Amino acid sequence: MSLLSRLPFPREGSFSSRLRSAAVAARVGLWLGICFGVAFVTGLISHYAQLDHQPVPFPTHPAWGYRVTQGLHVVAGTAAVPLLLVKLWVVYPKLFAAPPRRLGELVRTGLERGSIAVLVAASILELGIGLMNVAQWYAWDFSFRRTHDALAFVVIGALLVHIAVKLPLIRQVLGGDVEDAAADRPSAVRPGAIGRRGLLRGTWVAAVAAVVAGSATTGTIPGLDRLAVLSPRSRRAGIPVNRTAAQAGVVATATSASYRCEIGYGDTSVRLTRADLLALPQATHVLPIACVEGWSANGTWSGVPLRTLLDHVGAPRGRDLRISSLQQHTAESVTVLPADFADDERTLLALLLDGEPLALDHGYPARLIAPDRPGSLQTKWIARIEVLG
Ligand code: HEM
């Protein structure tokens, strides 16, 4: 009797459900792979959109581009949760497979299991912190963005290894009927209560339900947010608020009579009150706010076109801007606005939303609104705009 067989674990052969089959694992895996692929590509787009210095400028057209890619990112990640749970339930018996006796095979299997362990752990962590972030539950000290980005490469790398190793089996089982028993484990003989097709249908329904429930909670798919009962965010003028003025510690400075918005280019600098800003030529555009956490909403914003302000201080076209907020010591305190956004005629120093003065929580006295830009970079409570050399 081997040492392993004496440990108090079940054996692979003791799992008898026919549902736990390679035919089901590959079909659920296929959709899981598609979700991870979509989340990876859209995640890279989001990462690039947030770089301070972009070798190729992020486009300002279409205005809803980031809204769609980041919405897809969160939708794909949410759908992946039930898919991953079902997938792990289906392949769970493999965890208890007896190791091969021959050394060569043992090493090969050990390496494969190692990559699977990395894949499973990284996938669970990646989806877990992603969902917690969407729910605004920041229960960690590490940088979410850097960890989420790095884990994405680990997951995709391990996933490619997994697919390559299983490819012959994947092709075999996806090429046949889902009920085909040719690739089943010998012990998988007990018919499940719902059948393989029933399990797959239930899994697709669970994935769609997770997306609908997630969107209803956070507003990822516009319209579904009307169903929201447990939304983690408050709303002003129909648009969610991630950080309120009180949370950002700017209530006093943003409402102070001494507030000025400073625009600086070289030695030229002007300091404008909100009344001064309102006296300049105004424009109105319907533009979305699209949060990195997935929600998005259209607003009718009015204010001074940023280009008008830049002309005011004689700044040439083609210059990046450094935009500082009244809020201090956060990732959003200072951001860089690339030149193509600064020069786009739709980019506003917004003063009104839906014809009303901006709510304090939306960035009163003045905030940035640019097309196709991640919400966290649409700086609120603007204190200074500086033209970079
Ligand atoms: C994040 C994504 C995925 C995770 C976490 C995952 C996890 C796992 C695990 C833990 C196993 C058992 C490993 C073993 O045989 O020792 C497995 C097996 C398998 N996976 Fe995946 N997988 C993923 C994606 C995929 C994809 C994209 C496909 C194919 C389209 C796929 C197809 C399979 C197949 C065919 C098996 C063998 C099942 C069997 O022999 O009964 N997996 N997967």
Summary keywords:
2 domains; 5-stranded mixed sheet; 12 strands; elongated; alpha+beta; 389 residues; 45% helix; binds protoporphyrin IX containing FE; Sulfite Oxidase, Chain A, domain 2
Can you describe this structure?
- It is a single chain.
- By secondary structure, the chain is α+β, with helices and mostly antiparallel strands.
- It has 2 domains: 3-227, no CATH class; 240-387, Oxidoreductase, molybdopterin-binding domain (Sulfite Oxidase, Chain A, domain 2, Alpha-Beta Complex), CATH 3.90.420.10.
- Helices cover 45% and strands 15% of the residues.
- The protein has a 5-stranded mixed β-sheet. Strands 5, 6, 9, 10 and 11 form a 5-stranded antiparallel β-sheet that branches.
- Helix 2 (22-49) packs antiparallel against helix 3 and helix 3 (65-91) crosses helix 4.
- The model has no long low-confidence stretch (mean pLDDT 93).
- Bound molecules: protoporphyrin IX containing FE (HEM).
- Residues 22, 25-26, 29-30, 32-33, 36, 84, 87, 91, 94, 116, 119-120, 123, 159, 162-163, 166, 169-170 line the site of protoporphyrin IX containing FE.
